[in-house]
Amino acid sequence: MGRWLIPAVIVLELALLATGVIDLGTGVQIVLVIESLLFVLVLVQARAAWSTYRDARADGDDEVGAATTALDAVLPAPAAAVFKQDLLLWRALYLAVRRKKDAGADEAAIAYGKDVRLTMWLVLIADGVLLVVVHAALPWPTARTVMLVLGVLGVLWLAGFVATLYVYPHCVSPRRLRLRFASFYDISIPTSLIRSARIEKKSRGMRRSAEVVGDDLVMEVSSSTNVVVELGATHSVKLRKAEHPITRIHWYADEPAEAVELVRSFIGKPNDSASMGV
After folding, report:
1. Taking a C-beta distance cutoff of 8 angstroms, is the pair 167, 109 a contact?
2. Which contacts qualify for 28-34: CB closer than 8 Å, 24 or more apart?
3. CB–CB of 193/222 below 8 Å?
4. pLDDT in tens, 132-179
5. 5-14, 54-63, 200-209, 251-260: lowest mean pLDDT where?
6. Could you read off the pLDDT of 4-60 as tens digits, one per residue?
7. Which one in 35, 74, 158, 259 has a CA-CA gap of 20 to 30 Å to 121?
8. CA atoms of 197 and 3, how far apart (whole Å)
9. pTM to 2 decimal places
């Protein structure tokens, strides 16, 4: 409830002024008092976020995982989701510029989504060209400036999305099999639970890129999967805030034969890490 208090108070202040319930002078006085209280509340929320971040780091989360956990703790769910996506997109651009991937030192990266990457590159180029054309065509300076700002933000968002398909790959190590799609899904399975891996092409045409169907976790790319991992025991995964028991995973890799060999090479290897860091 507390996470909704700050936006609710701001909306209420604006509504009272707009409807004439309070005059401007009274509104300024009320705002000064309320904003002072809100400032204290922001400090309390920031302290809570920092405490949550440190606890998550202590539990083995990486910096981004801990930051998203902290956002979930102090912000309304819709606002937290937006901030998390922005954080992951900007981080993807940063990693792309540095030519790095988000993979641990003990993890082997597995690429996915080459068809999606090609399509998004074409969309990104088209948007860039459209941005220049619109900026040159508009006769009104103010409109040009507004459209330029919005266009640049849109191009940056698209560039960030393209970057996520490169810098957030699937990963496998003695600790875990980490399956992702861009900045939207990130699910880890302990490698110790994996019984087998094989190539198996299948298309379900699901509405979302990750769904649980029966006991199967299905993570499609371009409406298809080509790798199946069987688990030796039931494992619970969190998807859209709900826990789902699974025994099998269908997922997509650009090179399924190489992906299967990589996964098999880690089956049965000892895990020297203290935690999975999911």
Report:
1. no
2. 34/9
3. no
4. 888 888 888 888 888 888 888 889 999 999 999 999 999 999 999 999
5. 5-14
6. 555 665 666 666 666 666 565 665 666 566 666 656 666 776 777 777 767 767 766
7. 259
8. 43
9. 0.73
Query: What is the pLDDT at residue 51?
Result: 79
